[in-house]
Amino acid sequence: MASECQAIQEALSEYRGEVVRLGAAERQHVDACPGCSEVAAAEKALGLIFRDALAPADPSVVAGVMSALRPVRIRRRVVAFVPVAASLLVAVVGALLIGGVPGSGVISLLPGWSTRGWSAVLGSISDWYGVTSTGVAAATAAMDPAFLAAAGVIGLIGLAGVVATARRWRKISPWRKNG
Amino acid sequence: MAVTGQTEKLSDENLVELALDGDEDAYGALVQRYQRRLTAFLGQLVGDIELARELSQEAFIRAWSALARFDPRYRFSTWLFRIAHNLGIDHLRRRRLKTVGLYRTDSDGDEVEVVVAALDKDPLGHLENRALAEELHQVIDDLRPEYRELVLLRHFGGLSYQEIAEFKEMPLGTVKNKLFRAHSVLRKALAAFI
Predict the structure, then answer these.
(1) Which residues of B touch A54 (CB under 8 A)?
(2) pLDDT tens digits for B154-170?
(3) Inter-CA distances, B47 with B53, B62, B190, Å
(4) Backbone conformation region of residue A16, classed left if phi is above 0, alpha if psi is from -120 to 50, else beta
(5) Domains and CATH numbers, chain B
(6) pLDDT digits (tens, 9 = 90+) for A2-61
(7) Is A65 close to B35, i.e. CB distance below 8 A?
(8) What is the ipTM of this complex?
(9) At what angle do helices B130-142 and A34-53 cross, to 10 degrees?
(10) Residues A43, B176: C-beta atoms closer than 8 Å
(11) E strands within A31-99?
């Protein structure tokens, strides 16, 4: 078979024998070439056979899939809730460890209810700042500045990773829309 | 589920975006778009239309569950067909299909078993021309495996040559050539119906 015929017949196979999808020069070739004309006709007929061979659409498949999506969504939501629940648990356990078992007077110590609470919060912030700056000063004294700079860069990369993950998570979080 | 005309016009990529935002109707539109072809493809792969319906349902549910991991650089169609194909192959490996055994004599005069899917589950059972259905079933079955899969993806899965090339991770030229050769076999075997 001539290479031109081969190329045209491959294209006819792809276009299900539709000669109109060929270029002008190729169409002329098909008109003049008995072999390619025969293939065009046969490919068209083959296309029709396969079109009829396709089973009709079955609405039960669509209905079945759509009714199954809700349990999947619920399962995804439960899985997504696990880290939140774990964080809450850690927070509660931490609060218990630091402050002991809350008694009836705990509410009165919260910032919204007393100035004593607010001063406690401010004191904590001041303490936190003090501890951090002391820690940084100690680390600077004890370690090579290059090492600290590298640690800082790694920390920033880690932070960027957390932000990127959080952004992606926000996009796919199952409760974002429609329940 | 009613799919609006607007949803129907959206591309697969747009529908996937909407589905990722939690829009179940958008995903429903994708299911409607592909269920017929996916079921037909699986029907030919596993030889049982009832099983194909179950598997295509499962493929859509798996795709929904894994949608967040879908890489938008690829086509949704090829991704979905890959999920379905893997399900079909896994199923064939795990479970023997319910088949009817027949015997025929081969060219050397030996009796060999022909495995044919049970008639009530025939994926071509809806074809009115039974002689054509049987011949088509036989010729597809007799194709070399590398041609058979491409023919199923093309004519039952309705994938374009480009999509098949992506699915098979094969150069487009190779897909064209193999399908051309497969068509030559099909044209010859089905000459009486063409």
Answers:
(1) 36-37, 40, 156, 158
(2) 999 999 999 999 999 99
(3) 11, 22, 20
(4) left
(5) 1-120 (1.10.1740.10), 124-194 (1.10.10.10)
(6) 788 999 999 999 999 999 999 999 999 999 999 999 999 999 999 999 999 888 888 888
(7) yes
(8) 0.79
(9) 110
(10) no
(11) none
CB contact under 8 A, B176 and A14: yes
Which of B40, B97, B177 has the alpha carbon at shortest distance from A52?
Answer: B40
Whether residue B29 contacts residue B8, with contact meaning beta carbons closer than 8 Å, is answered with yes
pLDDT digits (tens, 9 = 90+) for A59-117: 888 899 998 887 766 676 677 778 778 888 887 776 665 555 555 455 556 555 567 76
Q: Which residues of B160-179 are buried (b: 16+ CB within 10 A; e: fewer)?
A: ebebbbbbbeeeeeebbebb
Q: How many CB pairs under 8 A join A and B?
A: 111
Measured between CA atoms, the residue of chain A closest to residue B16 is A172
List beta partners, residue B127: none
pTM for the model stands at: 0.66
Which of A45, A61, A66 lies closest to B56 in CB terms?
A: A61
